Amino acid sequence: MTFASLRSFGFWSLVVAILTYMTLPTLVVLMTSVNPTEILAFPPEGVSFAWYEKALTYPDFRRAFTNGLIVTSLASTLAVVVGSAFAWLIHRYEFRGRGVLEAVLWSPLIIPHFTLGFGFLLLGGAFKLQQGYVMIVLAHMVLVMPFVTRAVYVSLATIDPNLARAAANLGASPFHVLTRIELPLVLPGMAGGWLIAAVLSLTEFTASLYVTGSRTQTLPVAMYNYIREYADPTVSAVSAMLIITTTLIMFIADRAFGLRRVLAIDTH
Amino acid sequence: MTATSPAPAAVELVRVRKDFGSAVGVADVSLKIGQGEFLTLLGPSGCGKSTLLGMIAGFLTPTAGKIVVDGVDITDVEPYRRNIGMVFQSYALFPHMNVFDNIAFGLRMRKLPKAEVAGEVRRAIEMMKLGGFEERRVSQLSGGQQQRVALARAVVIRPKVLLLDEPLSALDKNLRAQMQVELSELHRKTGLTTIFVTHDQGEALSLSDRIVVMNRGEVQQVATPIELYRTPANGFVASFIGEINALPVARYERDGGEAALVLPGAGRLVAPAEGNFAHGAQVRAFLRPEHVRPALPGEDRPNIVSGVVAAHIYQGSHTITRVEVDGLGLIETRVTGADIVGTHPVGAPIALVLDLGDAVMLAANAGRIDA
After folding, report:
1. Taking the model in full, what pTM does it have?
2. Which residues, in sequence order, are CB contacts of B169 under 8 Å at separation 6+?
3. Interface check A179 vs B, CB under 8 A
4. What is the mean pLDDT of residues B256-264?
5. Do B96 and A167 lie within an 8 Å CB cutoff?
6. For the domain B249-363, what is the CATH superfamily, name and number?
């Protein structure tokens, strides 16, 4: 073996090792979901979809899924509205305290979800909102806002500033510049931001554990509660379905809105 | 209107100034632009021409001075109430609209009835030869087509003034020449008062009724293209417009109807006596390459200088020959054809006739030569 081919072999071995390391836990869970017996065994002893049926019919999961949809749709939508407004503010105006505002908007990326969830729990107690939808939606909205704001901000930043000038030059008032030029151009960013927010909210666990109750629990919380009592592959099946759903959402989002561009992963 | 009253100015700038912090963007510019005139703001980048245009469009607020359009002071009017059309260097076409909607945008903002919008847009599309492209997205158009859409969009609103911000600079050379002709035609057809910004002297000379040469935020000269070329006001204008030989600073000597330039190290040159220079003034003569020619064999007359051929730049119809002349430095001569390359190869001695009758003579301190 020459040195070059040895180096190439070493490189690809490393890549494969990293990718395996990243995906192995997920693969293990997915594989146990088709195990025919009641134990969470790995490797699986056969192939069965019985646990999928149980997952789809189990009342706690059904309700948790519905709860999740309600929370996710409300929280993501609110986050898009508020986050877009903030993104526009930061993009458009220079003002005192702009840096502070940005730092606060980005802060949920740094502060542990545990802290935020716990904080909302204490606040919820003070305002008699504990374990209600309002509290959960507000908590999720805060958690996903940085991602939405960033997506919209990036879209705004890529708009040629001369477009607004050209529109004004043609007689468009600031309101018309916003509604006819800036909003349509930033819409893909908003939609992409909404989808990211939806996926994050749908799978959020740590903060949700504090702010949900037994009747308002979201899917990850319901899964956690289930696995504390039972150790059968139903949870694996739910995981599998959740992963497939979110993957599909991301795939569609990338196709429809150029998610990579919206999130500034791709620069071309 | 009586014959003595001045023609109404479409645009009047009164001591317009723009400071950027401590830097001067535009320094107290006053200008009158006539109705239907094609006026060019010409200068190197950073000379303030685009800043001036931005203030007329209303995107920038002047630090001082006022801008009057059709007799109305618009200095503090918002850009969207000015009714001034503009074509941007990047065209700034709306990427989420097709060609028709781009052109119709301004009319729709003016709340024109639908049928009227359609009619006006159709006329603009015909004028700019964009028929068949109505439904195209602007990203599917070539540079020249995008340019036409930008022009159509700006003229369809029948603006009081049309501003063009280096609209040809993004096009390749052939297309640029063609668009120059089209711009000229458009101006003739619409009769719009047009302010054109460019750093390209060729575009400025071929398109303009008058040219405003700017440098470092200041107006250097306002003149017709021919005046500008023949009688530049200072060294900057002389060197910025076309090619020109700047002779070293000389002492101007006048004796009755005779005048002479005394050049240190190059003797005396006979100069035209009609200049307004006092005897003994320090002057600088500028001479176009077409006013320098090789001397004929045995030719005996004043203002023949001798030198050595340094280089030939063959240009097809003519040749620019650079000659190192004793005491004068490099002098360029423009000769028809390419014969000179054979008769006077590089390194050969050559005698040149300087046609100082066509030279531009400026006081030695009139403007720096830093173009």
Report:
1. 0.78
2. B89, B198, B199, B200
3. no
4. 83
5. no
6. Nucleic acid-binding proteins (2.40.50.140)
